[in-house]
Structure formats: structure tokens, C-alpha cells
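note to self — DONT lose this again. spent like an hour looking for the file last time. sequence + predicted structure for the chain T wanted, 420 res
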Amino acid sequence: MDDISMINPAELDSESRPGLGPSNVPNPQQAHAHSQRFRDWDSIQYLASLGKNGSSRSQTFYNGETLSTRMTALRQAIIYVRDNWGEYPSLMADLHSYIDELTTSSVADGRDHLDLPPYLPIVLNSRKVWNSHSDMILDDENLSVIRLYTSKGGYDHIFRIINQAFRSSNVHEQEKRLRCAVFLIELLNIDLFNYTLHSPRLHNFEGTVYRGVVFSHDQLQDFKDLAALPVADRYWGIPMAMMSASMNKEVALREFAGLDKSLDSTEPQARYPFLWRIHVLGLFPRYLNIYRERFPTSVVSTICAVPIKELSDFAAEDEVLLRGPFFQLVSLREEFFEGHEQPIHVMDLVMLNINRDHPSTMQLSPEEGDKARQLFACLVGLCRTEICRELAMVYGLTDDIAQYEEMYRVASEKLERFGF
């Protein structure tokens, strides 16, 4: 939809939105047992990059002085996996060995041993292929990584693999582990791509999704600090990971942000409920057409936000999987919610559901690949800035509106230099 008027202030939290009915709220026992991925931050924070310097109070993979070195290592791992995709059995064998290594070390260290999730063996014995048509048969093998992610224990296993890879201080070990983590994420990319290709109604998802978390004072302060930065620096992302959100605001508030539990903010180790309201939109057609006309062989997908309710064992959570999300923080404020005496912090974020992660990008020459990457980033930036400016107008953020307009002017001049 090439129209930012879809952001209606009266509908930002409309109780009449599909998926907000009481029949979609999971029962407490089920939510308590299986919703960790919806409220987890302890695992994700190490993979997050906040603002220009990636800084936060947590030691992150993308943090401060190590940002350039780690990003270089990550890019090398991505290139290695894609260049060596023909060695698929070897890549899978390395992943299998790495998982065995993690499991063995966990037992040796006396930590709780996680039972292998039922879909993990299916993943390790699968042969994933990027599909080019929608008539493929989707079965458990073809969607095994998505099903692994949504299964009991599967989320823990995936993040254990990724976290261990990204947090290793040994350069040699990190190289090996990064390749395994990148390979696993590439398998997820394939599942998401094939799933949206096979199910057109899931393609180009747009809408408002929610994530509820409970933060410590320092964790909350990280985002308050981010919100205080100039508009151009108010961004953050999780480049090589995934995150769950729900189309059901009540699920995010009650089950995952803990609004139905007693949280005393006067305690020394206070925990604060925190709601993320994520506005997901697609790249406006006028921008997408520019890219496709210039690089017609480069496949663009919408795997950054995919509804996976039908694949989850816990469909009542109305889950949307956010893959490698990049967010622009528009607003952070306190709001009141019915049935809760104290206000809670609410963060409005914008993300675009558009992506170039596809083997076709590797078919471009290095020079053309750089041009494609730069043009795509410029178009995405223009679109995101338009959307954020509209939201800033909705919330009456006068100073921010002027900053977004300046960002848009600079990006437009950059686009002109591309010849458009």
C-alpha cells in the first residue's frame, strides 16, 4: 500500500482489530509454559545493536569498539555459507557437530540438559531449497526450522546456537560457530521464503504487532537513552536473529508484560512492564518499482514479518515472526491501560517488511552488488522516514517532524545521484 494514511490515530490500539477477542487469549498454564520467546530479552540483548555505536549497558555482539570487527566477521561468514552452498552436506554436518558439542558441554558443566526438540532431527536431515514457484508441497521437512522455532524447547535451542557463536572470544572458534549460526538462519530464511511464496495471503504482511517484556531499570534506561537521541540515531536492530510478536495486544500485555501480575516498582530490583507497539509496513510500490527496474534479477521478499500462527503449537498467541528486524524508534511514553493502576512504558517502533536475502544477490557482480545494496538502503530509508514522519504527526512530536523532513531531503538528494 503506497499510502501512509493507513496510520490512523484512532486505530493504533483499536479493540476491534481482528485477533483481539477473548477467544484468542491463551490459557494461563499454556502461556506460562510456552511463551518464553515472546518476552525474552536476556538472550536477544547480546545480539542487539542500539543506535549508531551499538551501545547499551549490556555487552552486545555489536557493541562499541568491536562493532566493525564483528560485522566484518559476520559478513565473511555469510559470504562463506552462500559461496559454499554446494557443500550443503558438509555445512549441515558442521551444524550437527556443533549442536552435539553444545549439548555435551552443557552436561559436563552440570547445567540442565535440554531434551532435543522433536523438529531438530528433521532440520538436521533436511535439504532446503529456495523455491521459484508456488506449487511446491509444504510438509514438516520443508517448514521444519519454523516449526522448530515455535516448538517447546526449540527457541532455547536456536538461541543457544546463535548466542554461543556470537559471544565467543576465540577468533578461530568464533569463525566456525558463526558459520553454523549463519547456516541455521539461512535455513530459516528458506522456510520463510517458501512459506510466503506458497501462501500469497501471508505475503507482504502489514499491520501492528505487539511484544510485551519485563525490564530491569537499566534495561529500560537503555531505551530511554536511545529515545533521547536525535531522530537520525534512534534506530536499533537484531541483524542475525529473530523475535516473536503477537497481533493480539492483550496477549502481549497480560501474558508477556505481566500486567496481570504484581510488579512493585519500589523494590530495589524492580521490574518494569514494557510494551512494544511495532508498526509493520511494506516498501511503497513507487520505491520498490525503482529497485526492480534497475536490478530486475534481484529477488526481493517479505520474510521480515511473517504470521506463523498456523504453524505454531500455540496458535492462540497470534504469532508473527520478525526475522532480523530493524526498528526506528518513534516514541517512548507512559500510557495507562484498563485494569492497571500505574502507567507503563510503551515504545512505538516502525519496521519495513522487505528484504534482499536471496541467492540472486550473489549473482550480481561485486560492483553491481554494491550499487544494488546502496540503492535498496536509500529507498528503504526514504520509505521509513515518510512513515515515521506520519507517526510523529499523529503524536504531535513537532521537533521530530522537522528532523524527519530533513532526513527525507538528504535521502532524496542521494536518490537523485543514483539517476532517479
